[in-house]
Design goal:
Length: 250
Amino acid sequence: MKVPWAVACLLAVLLAAGCSSNQTVKPDGAGSAPTVTAASAAPWRGAREAAPPIKEKSSVEDLVQPTSVSLPVTATRGAKTAAGGVPSQTGPQYKLGPEDQIRVSVWENAQLTLDLVVRPDGKISMPLIQDVTAEGRTATELATQIQQKLTAYIKDPQVSVIVLQINAPKFYVIGNVVRPGTYPLRGETSVLQALSLAGGFTQFASMKSIKLIRNAGGKQEVRKINYYDVIGEGGKGNYLLNSGDTVVVP
């Protein structure tokens, strides 16, 4: 009979399909884990060993590195450092006088840091301590005086005095010169230089009878000068002037 034969064929086909589905087909090299050998792992291990260690910051102190800063030191009276403050062009022994301009600085006190002019009476005025005599004192001596007076108001004041402009030293040229008047004594100035600053002689000048008048120790000293001796060999009579000297050209 045909029907049983067809059924038998169908069963055979189903059995064959079932057997095929239970088998796993593995291509070459697939399905197996890669084998790692010591030789293959060596490059990776060497790279890790060669890499520098990473330092981890464990605290704020490690993250912030201290920086050394050098600050300028100002020499003041009352400070732990050496006293100073007098400009080199005036010299440490320069004594203040009227019309000199100075700067008084008190450390960490802006109200007491002032630019002052020495008055004609030789004094300066400051808050708290009022009048202080400046004439006849060096800048360092004046700083010490101010410091002593401020001690009554401020604990351990540190004071410095700087000469800003020298106006006190003067000499005078009068008589038969082109520009008679008062002249500042900035440095070493001779009689011949003083006459040059005054513009030289007029046509009425008596050049052999020039006089230098100087106050020495409270006494008036008169020196006679012959202009022709001054310009001659040796420069006799070409004195260096002091503050307050007067050159008279009759």
